Amino acid sequence: MNVSQGRLRWVFPAAAACFVFAGLAGVLFRYGLVMGFPFGLHAEYIRHAHSHLMYFSWVTPLLMAMLAVHGVPRERWSKSVSVAIGGTFVLGLMAFVPFLMFGYTVAEIGTARIPFSMIAAGLNVIPWYVFAVWYLRNARQADDAPQRTLFAGAVVYLVLASLGAWALAYLSISGQNNLFLERSALHIFLDYFSEGWLVLGVLGLMYALVGQQPGGADLARIRTATVLLLAGLSATFLLPLPATLVPVPMRWAAALGGVAACAGLALHIGWLWSRARGWRIVLFLLAVKTVAMLAYSLPGVNEWAGQLGARLLYLHILLLGFVTLGLIRAAVATWLPGRLAAEGWMVASVFVLLASLLPLTRLFPAALMGRWVLLFALAASVLPVLSMIGLFVQWHTGRNVEIASFRLEDHPVATAGVSELAPEAAPETLRLSEV
Ligand code: HEM
Q1: CA of 123 to the centre of ligand 1 (A)
Q2: For 348-407, what is each residue's pLDDT tens digit?
Q3: Among residues 27, 20, 29, 22, which one has the least CA distance to residue 56?
Q4: Is the torsion defined by CA of 319, 320, 324, 326 positive or negative?
């Protein structure tokens, strides 16, 4: 059965609601550090609940919907895509409570010992497989469209990430005490998910939405960039491992992979910078992340960078900065006729939150540290949550849509017929464009 692309428009508000829940868990973590953790909650468990819900039910379903809209022709749509996306929401939310209560530990109920969180996390990969099979079988784009390889690469990395999660579960059940394998499996899951699935997916969306395709020498350069990125990323999961665990030849392979991936990203950023004007903030954050990754890839610098305690900052530049702002931009450009004012609030609040993470690293002078650092981090953590609530409200009311900055040629998907993509938005669209 074919479904209309407009029907997937519900994915944005549903994912935004999950962002708010997950974000509130982040606020609770910050609150707990200042005031103490309420209801006997554990800092580590709150962190797991936060990061898993962000991964499972904010970024993943929204990116799946975007790939479906921009990667698969409408006549090839089937129920599988709605099932996969719906499944990511339901299972992601189901995992939230066990993570909050038990983290990764085994729950003891009477005499039974049940690993609720691991079961819930394991179930989450099922809709990923449904989506991956559906997407790889049905995706059709022009051969020379850069997003074609980037989207397919993103989906392949999503599947590879899930293998890391299975390997981790197997290693913990089998009781082999092999730290190298355990850490490798963990980082295959985390890094293939964030650097592969998310980065490749959002990068592909920029090409899909920018409305221009590279040709001639540019096309060859972009293809080289994508090859470098896809190949390089495969080895980068070794970079965060302690040097003592990784044999020297593998450390060199990881460094080479990191440099290749960064070169690929730099070439992509260079091409998109002058053509994707509405995406410059997103590209800037990708550039910052690329510089950090390059530093992290170089032997010697790697160990120094590891001691800075900047991993949390790096993760949020990548996941809250590049990925989240990129997905919001893509969703608005795809499903609405203009920009939402709350997008600007979100950009500002992301920068404030990132600034609040800087004093938590060793990059910040120790002499200036004090209680204000935790209070600032707590106050800043509330802002993206409020901005997302603003986006949610404006998405539904259609208010504050700025049409002055909207040029149809920037949004090929919108020109394909907003009424087809988002039937429920069509009357609003017409009224706005007549103003
Ligand atoms: C509302 C915005 C956000 C807030 C307030 C927030 C807050 C936090 C906090 C307080 C932590 C724990 C810090 C610590 O360990 O010291 C954290 C960790 C983390 N967050 Fe966020 N975050 C936000 C957005 C995101 C997004 C959008 C993602 C992913 C898409 C994300 C993924 C992560 C990850 C992966 C970790 C590390 C988990 C770990 O090390 O186990 N966060 N965040």
Answers
A1: 22
A2: 999 999 999 999 998 888 888 889 999 999 999 999 999 999 999 999 887 656 544 444
A3: 22
A4: negative
Contact status, residue 294 vs residue 254, Cβ threshold 8 Å: no
| Model confidence pLDDT, tens digit, residues 69-98 | 999 998 898 888 999 999 999 999 999 999
One-letter identity of residue 359: P
Residue of 166, 82, 161 lying closest to 127 (CA atoms): 82
Q: Does the CA dihedral 181-60-234-313 come out positive or negative?
A: negative
pLDDT digits (tens, 9 = 90+) for 5-61: 567 999 999 999 999 999 999 999 999 999 999 998 999 999 999 999 999 999 999
- State the closest ligand 1 atom to the C-alpha of 323, by its place in the atom list counted from 1: 30
Q: Which atom of ligand 1 is nearest to the CA of 48?
A: 41
Residues constituting the chain = 435
Q: How far is the CA of 432 from the centre of ligand 1 (A)?
A: 37
Q: How many whole angstroms from 433 Cα to the centroid of ligand 1?
A: 39
Q: How many CA atoms lie within 13 A of 284 on its CB side?
A: 8
User: Taking 60 as the threshold, does the pLDDT of residue 252 lie above it?
Assistant: yes
Rounded-to-integer distance, Cα 347 and Cα 324, Å = 10
Q: Which amino acid is at 377?
A: A
Asked if 231 and 254 count as a contact pair (C-beta separation under 8 A), the reply is no
Average pLDDT over residues 132-139: 96
C-alpha–C-alpha distance, residues 412 and 289, integer Å: 28
The pLDDT score that the predictor gives to residue 337 is 75
Strand, coil or helix: 411: coil
Measured CA to CA, the distance from residue 31 to residue 91 in angstroms comes to 27
Q: What pLDDT, on a 0 to 100 scale, did the predictor assign at position 336? A: 87
